[in-house]
Design goal:
14 helices; about 0% strand; mainly alpha
């Protein structure tokens, strides 16, 4: 008796969804875990000091800026916070944002072989690339705590809200990362633009200088940058030396929602051609 070979099963994405399916992502949670673990472990594979790069980078940058901006150029800190603490806290948070954005934006192209061979919700890829940035932030934040202890900067109750600020920052990073990672598949110029944007962001965001030294006429323009509101909220949770920056904080909250919604919709539409274009 002859038996016919079973026909191969082809799984394709649905054509009518405007946004990635949360239930489908949940069904692929094992893949999320595997890819996240792969990215976290592979980030410092065969590295001499491993995860301590997350500590070394903000410390060295803070030292450089402390010497040249605080001592040489007399750039002030915020009241009651020594400049080295101010600088290292800002650099830790900025490296989290910039690394997360760089990793997420290049994630789809970096997984070309996986995307072209098997179907799964592609949005999983930029999502899992946020985990290495989160691990780096968790490690580097210990440096901020140590610096506050060394310089005698007091802790305030609102420090428990730091995870909330990080959550809003993740929304901004993931939303922008969805846009950039999808665009990067079709336009490889995006890969060249990201480092330039990150470099520009270092100087047009109040990372190594307080927002107060920016001329008042330019502060509304600065506030349009979501990183400004994130940094102001972050520093308020750490140092509590100013009033809650409610106006500038609204902007990153709104930006995170808009970027997530539009980025998810754009990524969902673009992912149908990933396997052909990539």
């Amino acid at each position: 008796m002859e038996t016919s070979a079973a026909s191969p099963r082809v799984i394709e994405p649905g054509g009518g969804d405007r946004f990635p399916s949360l239930s489908e992502i949940w069904r692929h949670r094992d893949l999320v875990y595997y890819l996240a673990r792969r990215e976290v472990s592979g980030r410092y594979k065969q590295s001499a000091i491993g995860v301590f790069w997350a500590v070394l980078q903000p410390v060295l940058l803070a030292v450089v800026f402390s010497v040249f901006l605080s001592l040489r150029a007399n750039v002030p800190s915020i009241p009651g916070v020594p400049y080295p603490v101010f600088a290292v806290s800002g650099m830790v948070f900025w490296l989290f944002i910039s690394n997360g954005l760089a990793l997420a934006s290049g994630s789809t192209v970096a997984n070309e072989s996986l995307i072209s061979k098997v179907y799964f919700p592609r949005v999983i890829i930029p999502l899992t690339y946020l985990f290495p940035a989160l691990v780096d932030l968790a490690v580097a934040f210990m440096v901020v705590i140590a610096a506050m202890l060394i310089y005698g900067v007091g802790f305030h109750p609102q420090i428990v809200l730091v995870p909330l600020v990080v959550l809003v920052a993740l929304g901004v990073i993931l939303g922008a990362g969805l846009w950039l990672s999808a665009l990067n598949v079709r336009y490889r110029d995006v890969h060249q633009v990201i480092p330039f944007l990150i470099l520009m962001g270092l100087f047009v965001s109040p990372i190594i200088y307080p927002l107060d030294i920016v001329p008042e006429s330019l502060q509304p323009l600065y506030a349009l940058n979501p990183v400004t509101g994130l940094l102001e909220a972050y520093r308020w949770t750490l140092f509590g030396t100013t009033d809650w920056p409610v106006v500038v904080v609204i902007i990153p909250v709104v930006a995170s929602v808009l970027l997530l919604v539009t980025g998810a919709a754009f990524f969902q539409r673009a992912e149908r051609t990933f396997a052909d274009v990539i």
